[in-house]
């Protein structure tokens, strides 16, 4: 019996000396990096506030060259807009195609002529761009061949015509617009349209002489406007 007790005591001492306390350490840096690979839950919920905030920050860094006159909203007032088919549009035989876009929309054509633009008129028309390095090239382009001058009238015609025309850069213009369908380069973007009601009146007065505009009522008018 004494021998058995001694054996049990030696076993307890041996287990006590060999056992160690188990401790838990913090995750290593590598573990943190591994966990960071998981996306925030906000990405799973597009309507969450954090998602919208992140999306807004990303949008601020986007290239804004494709933004097309965000301030220009069609009014309910009858306006006039100067639309000009540029030399490339005339040379490519697009005159009928472009005029039909505005006719089908329902605007009224008040003035139309084929015209060889002199240099002084071109410089006056584009005077706001006179400080730009491409100005001489622009004037040379506009005076290189005949243009088609048009005066259009209608409710909200200025903003609506700009939408029909499309973005200045045809590669950024939406399909279905004139430039989106018929052009590929800014320097050959086929058509010009007034960018404000005030410029519409100024440009029509610049390109048309007294007596060149017709004041008439289309037969379809009652079917277009209440």
UniProtKB/TrEMBL annotation:
GO biological process: CTP biosynthetic process; GTP biosynthetic process; response to hydrogen peroxide; UTP biosynthetic process
Molecular-function GO terms, alphabetical: ATP binding; nucleoside diphosphate kinase activity
Protein family per UniProt: Belongs to the NDK family.
Active site: 192 (pros-phosphohistidine intermediate)
Pfam families in the cross-refs: NDK
Domain Nucleoside diphosphate kinase-like positions: 78-215
Gene3D superfamilies found in the cross-reference section: Nucleoside diphosphate kinase-like domain (3.30.70.141)
Residues reported to bind ATP: 86, 134, 162, 168, 179, 189
SUPFAM superfamilies hit by this protein: Nucleoside diphosphate kinase, NDK
Entry keywords, A to Z: ATP-binding, Kinase, Nucleotide-binding, Transferase
Highest taxon of the lineage: Eukaryota
Catalytic activity: a 2'-deoxyribonucleoside 5'-diphosphate + ATP = a 2'-deoxyribonucleoside 5'-triphosphate + ADP; a ribonucleoside 5'-diphosphate + ATP = a ribonucleoside 5'-triphosphate + ADP
EC number: 2.7.4.6
Protein task: Major role in the synthesis of nucleoside triphosphates other than ATP. The ATP gamma phosphate is transferred to the NDP beta phosphate via a ping-pong mechanism, using a phosphorylated active-site intermediate.
Name of protein: Nucleoside diphosphate kinase
Cofactor(s) in the UniProt record: Mg(2+)
PROSITE patterns in the cross-refs: NDPK, NDPK_LIKE
Stored HAMAP family: NDP_kinase
First-tier enzyme category under EC: transferase
InterPro entries named in the record: NDK-like_dom, NDK-like_dom_sf, Nucleoside_diP_kinase, Nucleoside_diP_kinase_AS
């Amino acid at each position: 019996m004494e021998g058995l007790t001694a054996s049990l005591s030696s076993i307890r001492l041996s287990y006590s000396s060999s056992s160690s306390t188990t401790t838990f350490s913090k995750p290593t840096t590598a573990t943190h990096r591994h966990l960071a690979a998981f996306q925030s839950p906000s990405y799973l919920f597009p309507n969450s506030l954090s998602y919208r905030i992140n999306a807004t920050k990303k949008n601020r860094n986007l290239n804004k060259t494709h933004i097309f006159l965000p301030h220009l909203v069609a009014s309910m007032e009858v306006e006039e807009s100067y639309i000009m088919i540029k030399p490339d549009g005339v040379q490519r035989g697009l005159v009928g195609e472009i005029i039909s876009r505005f006719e089908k929309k329902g605007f009224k054509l008040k003035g139309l002529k084929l015209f060889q633009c002199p240099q002084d008129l071109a410089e006056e028309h584009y005077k706001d761009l006179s400080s730009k390095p491409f100005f001489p090239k622009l004037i040379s382009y506009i005076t290189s061949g005949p243009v088609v001058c048009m005066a259009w009238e209608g409710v909200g015609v200025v903003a609506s015509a700009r939408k029909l025309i499309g973005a200045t850069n045809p590669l950024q213009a939406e399909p279905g617009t004139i430039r989106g369908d018929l052009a590929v380069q800014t320097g050959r973007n086929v058509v010009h349209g007034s960018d404000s009601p005030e410029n519409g009146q100024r440009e029509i007065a610049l390109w048309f002489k007294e007596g060149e505009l017709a004041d008439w009522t289309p037969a379809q008018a009652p079917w277009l406007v209440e």
